[in-house]
Design goal:
23 helices, 5-stranded parallel sheet, single chain, 4 domains, 570 residues, alpha/beta
């Protein structure tokens, strides 16, 4: 470019454009320089090694050009293998009998391997190891440990995300497909939209996947779309244009992926993003690449993209049998609004506007229901027929349980068919609402829309066990053994169960009923290090803390966990 700007230099010379070498040309170049690097490192490079260097560098190292990156790759692999062989030879040196057990002087140095030793051969495995060190992408072949880890991925994720079997299965399939090299090399590993009510595990599943497969939750790149609601905020993803403040900092998305190309990208609450954000996502989802404000192309083909959304929550709750609860809460809000505003709703009333919007949304849903697709209508008829058959055999209560717990493994035969049909019905409803919110070209580029269903009380109790285990670890770090009774667990579940708000009320109940009170007892000195503390519920419904007496360990003190004087018992 500078030569073209200078007329004098352009007249004196000729501009020659040198294009990037192809993979076959790179292999021939590597064969030409092979002897030079073999003499330098004291190793040998096989033909398969050169082929792997050209292929891996072209696929996984996108910010450099061939043949430069392939030559550096074999140079690094030769140096790594030579260092490993020299280190092994030093470990094999005999220990001298005298001199206080000193190690005998090695016959060779790191730069001069033994002449009698066999010359090591650099294989494609060493090339893959170097690529993994450079980029963080697992290029090596799958060993037995990783194979077992991939096969048990559903179980590992399900231990942390309760009650969402279908999303866990879809995520595990995408990971296995990518690791075995069966995915499209020009697209991301997978792209999903997690849709469902609040507090059912959408974000938690993304964190669990980053921790289980990507190694750590630090390998998750999270972008809250509530911060990208304005048009000018869109430039923060790829960087500010030249001449604007923040140009040298780069984009928040592009810089994070450029540093960690093998990571999980989480777009939280995607429906809140500005429409210009979706123009950027279209290129990422289809081509697996994005150019930042500095003109650098960032590779997204080794990223897993997850977007969370609350679109379709009302349809999921309605299909899961919780529509009556939603309607009851709306009626209570309207009654409170009438009490506060007896003259009727005003223009400044947020509650009235919210109720009006919800009522309008209800009418739109009814209108949409009356104009359903014939296939969907037929599917509903089949579901109703299965309900009637189950009602004749097991009663109405079993049918309702099958309808709500669509992913339960206890029901077989017709129960499983009904559960799967109901899940597909819910999924089609949610996809219909997504079509009204997002553009078709955006939805068409996604791999799958995954629907999260509401949690039932049994699943909330399992989540309660996970939260209590986390509190137990925190107390164990202070050398205090914490245990809770089943009554106290039932109390937490009854306080924190809400089918509309998911597991978040349970977390608040654990903090309010347990952690806050334990913190006060630790500060006051009622609970000391080395003690065993048990939390229970009394006959009057009071929360009791059972701990040994300081003066007489044989005495047990029952103290109100919230407030109150201790009661000593033998």
């Amino acid at each position: 470019v500078c030569l073209c700007l200078c007329l004098c230099l352009c007249l004196c010379g000729v501009c020659v454009c040198v294009h990037q070498a192809t993979i076959p040309q790179t292999i021939e170049i590597l064969k030409g320089v092979r002897s030079k690097y073999e003499d330098h490192h004291g190793v040998m490079f096989s033909d398969e090694c050169l082929d792997a260097a050209a292929a891996f560098s072209h696929r996984y190292i996108r910010d450099r050009f061939l043949p430069d990156k392939a030559i550096d790759l074999i140079d690094e692999a030769g140096s790594l293998l030579q260092f490993q062989m020299a280190k092994m030879s030093l470990m094999d040196q005999p220990i001298s009998s005298g001199g206080g057990g000193a190690v005998a002087a090695p016959a060779t140095t790191l730069d001069e391997p033994a002449a009698s030793a066999e010359v090591p051969m650099v294989t494609p495995e060493e090339i893959a190891r170097v690529v993994a060190l450079w980029t963080g992408i697992p290029v090596e072949s799958v060993d037995e440990d990783e194979s077992e880890k991939l096969m048990n991925l559903e179980e590992n994720l399900a231990d942390r995300v309760i009650g969402q079997r279908q999303p866990v299965i879809s995520i595990a399939k995408a990971i296995r497909r990518s690791r075995m090299g069966l995915k499209d090399p020009s697209r991301p590993v997978a792209s999903f939209i997690f849709s469902g009510p609040t507090g059912v595990g959408k974000t938690e599943l993304a964190k669990a996947l980053a921790d289980t497969y990507f190694g750590s939750e630090d390998n998750i790149i999270r972008l809250d779309m509530s911060e990208y609601m304005e048009r000018f905020a869109t430039s923060r993803m790829i960087g500010s244009p030249p001449g604007y403040v923040g140009f040298d900092d780069g984009g928040q998305l592009t810089e994070a992926v450029r540093r960690k190309p093998h990571s999980l990208i989480l777009f939280d609450e995607i429906e809140k993003a500005h429409p210009d954000v979706f123009n950027i996502l279209l290129q990422i989802l289809d081509d697996g690449r994005l150019t930042d404000s500095k003109g650098r192309t960032v590779d997204f083909t080794n990223t897993l993209i997850i977007m969370t959304s609350n679109v379709g929550s009302s349809s999921i709750l309605e299909a899961s049998g919780h529509d009556a609860i939603v309607q009851q809460q709306q009626e209570e809000e309207q009654e409170e609004e009438m009490e506060t505003n007896p003259d009727g709703p005003t223009n400044n009333s947020r509650g009235s506007r919210f109720a009006a919007l919800k009522g309008k949304e209800k009418e739109e849903q009814k209108t949409t229901t009356t104009q359903e697709d014939p296939i969907l209508t037929s599917l509903r008829a089949q579901i109703e027929e299965l309900k009637r058959e189950n009602a004749d055999l097991k009663g109405k209560q079993v049918v309702e349980e099958v309808a709500i717990n669509s992913d339960s493994a206890e029901h077989e035969g017709q129960g499983d068919a009904s559960a799967e049909a109901r899940y597909q019905d819910i999924k089609s409803r949610v996809f219909g609402e997504l079509q009204q919110r997002f553009r078709p070209e955006f939805l068409n580029r996604l791999d799958e829309v995954i629907v999260f269903r509401p949690l039932d009380k049994a699943e909330v109790r399992l989540i309660c066990d996970l939260m209590l285990a986390d509190t137990h670890k925190k107390m164990q770090a202070r050398n205090i053994t914490l245990s809770v009774t089943d009554k106290f667990k039932d109390h937490l579940v009854s306080e924190g169960f809400d089918p509309i708000y998911g597991a978040r009320p349970l977390r608040r109940a654990v903090k309010r009923c347990l952690e806050d009170s334990l913190a006060e007892r630790l500060l006051s000195g009622d609970i000391l290090e080395g003690q065993a503390v048990e939390v229970d519920v009394g006959q009057q419904g009071d929360l009791l803390c059972k701990l040994p007496s300081v003066d007489d360990p044989s005495c047990i003190r029952y103290q109100l966990l919230v407030s109150g004087a201790p009661v000593t018992m033998r």
